[in-house]
Amino acid sequence: MISYLRTFLPWIAFAVLSTNGEARIGALAGFALAVVLLLMDRRKGRAWDALVIEASSAVFFAGLALAAFVIAPAPFGEYGPAVSVGWLAVTAWGSLAIRRPFTLGIARGMTPPEVQASPMFYRVNATITAVWAVAFTLNAVGLAVLFALAPHATVAIIAVKICGFALPALFTVRYPEIVRARYAA
């Protein structure tokens, strides 16, 4: 669970620091954190397939930071949080489309080689990635609708943001345990 929290740290910083359509500080913080995490992980020897979200984050925040300082008012305006989660949805769906679920590389760092070689390992990670992709998609749509219809509904916006990450994170922790228990019986 901690590794997933760390993976999404740039997005958390962006969400906290980007307010009222102002994305510059949040985008710079997200970019800096994404680059630092990538460099630290590469120094530790983590493979690129375990760093899909980190690499995607660095690309997104580099582009957003550049745009935020060049375009006035800030790009995406108040829809920035919805667009950023939409980027994560595209990343997750894209990893599934090329049959390289983004959770696969992360899970390899936490499981023995004999488990990684099984077809079930791939299926479990494809399912987990699909849950993240759906959650990111629903989160982006939910945020966009809230910003369009009730932009001052701060509690609802925060709830959507939290649920969009907390629910798939809980699923990520529980689902492998459920599969193991099912096949152990």
Quickly describe the structure.
The chain is mainly α and 185 residues long. The protein has nine helices and no strands.
Descriptive report:
It is built from 9 helices and no strands. The chain is mainly alpha-helical. The mean pLDDT is 88. It is 78% helix and 0% strand.
Set down the secondary structure blueprint.
Elements: H1 2-7, H2 9-17, H3 24-43, H4 52-70, H5 80-97, H6 102-108, H7 113-116, H8 119-149, H9 154-184
Helix pairs in contact: 2-3, 3-4, 4-5, 5-8, 6-8, 8-9
Give descriptors for this structure.
185 residues, mainly alpha, 9 helices
End-to-end gap = 26 Å
Q: What is the radius of gyration computed over CA atoms, rounded to a whole number of angstroms?
A: 17 Å
| Overall SS class | mainly alpha
Which runs of at least 5 residues are low in confidence (pLDDT < 50)? none
Q: Could you give a short account of the major beta sheet?
A: none
Shape label: globular
Q: Helix count, per DSSP?
A: 9
- Helix coverage percent of residues? over 70%
Give the strand content: under 5%
How many β-strand stretches? 0
Topology pattern, helix = H, strand = E? HHHHHHHHH
**Average predicted confidence as pLDDT:** 88
